[in-house]
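Why do we bother with a discrete structure alphabet at all? Because it lets us treat a fold like text: something you can write down, compare, and reason about line by line. To make this less abstract, here is a complete entry for Ring-cleaving dioxygenase. Read it the way you would read a sentence in a foreign language you are learning: slowly, and without expecting to understand everything at once.
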Amino acid sequence: MNILPLKGQHHVSAITANAKENLHFYTEILGMRLVKKTVNQDDTSVYHLFYADERGNPGTDLTFFEIPHAGTTYEGTNSISLTSLRVADDNALDYWVNRLEEHDVKHEGVTEESGRKTLAFRDFEGQRLQFVSDEHNQGVAGGKPWDKSPVPVEHGVVGLGPVRLTVSRPDITAKVLVDVMGFSEVRSYTEETSSQTIRVFETGEGGTGGEIHLLERNDLQRERPGRGSVHHVAFRVENQDELNKWVEHISASGLPNSGFVERYYFRSLYFREPNGILFELATDGPGFEGDESFDTLGENLALPPYLENQREQIEATIKPLHTKKG
């Protein structure tokens, strides 16, 4: 079966216990656009918020499920342990040092990682994040920051960068990445803080928007997720026809999986690799403008058509979250 390579990161989905503060941090401090305010389709009692570039282009979405009673994250192995956000160049990192300090956001200063300048920081719940410079990037193209953001367009987030997986048995994750998902192992580097080797895998056009970084830590307990942890990482598939091929391919590989899942804004397939990390494959379209115009993205509670008959119940259950502009 001839399957097109995965095109890079599609989105990363994480957990927050406070949608209001989450909205403030990612829109008012990080300057990302809320492109969709909807609910978790598997549990409609909680919000699912999508932050991205100006229109939620695939590869730019950082999303959050609000779980109000989510406990503390106990960081450890077999986890998605770092999410990168791409910015245009090294100058943008200098801007972000100042902006983070203005908003009392702790950071680790600008360093170099695998030939790129980076700036590690955490959100208000301890979400592990870093900015990565695209100064010398060649590979998957970034998106376009929203021109109504509080952050100048030239310094705005243009998409998701490398995603780090920390695992106890790296070879079995690497085997899935290479033999099943079609990634190539391209290089390695040493992490400054731990002196551990990180292996780099890339797909599609590669570069910051097409890399997974794999870190071995067998000296840690398995991570206990909570607020500030990552739920899953998704990778880009061209269209539904290609996704159907991936459903067959993943099933033939012997990995238990969800089969085809309709998400309305994209179509998906979910499976776990042997260390327990949840992967999703998601189509580039249809996108976020099927039920809202470009100008009003994220302003209202959006529900896919198959949940519209539950709107009254859903709106009565979830806490109001003010997202209208003006």
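What the structure line is telling us, in plain words: DSSP finds five helices and 16 strands in the chain. Residues 9-317 form a domain with the 2,3-Dihydroxybiphenyl 1,2-Dioxygenase; domain 1 fold (CATH 3.10.180.10).
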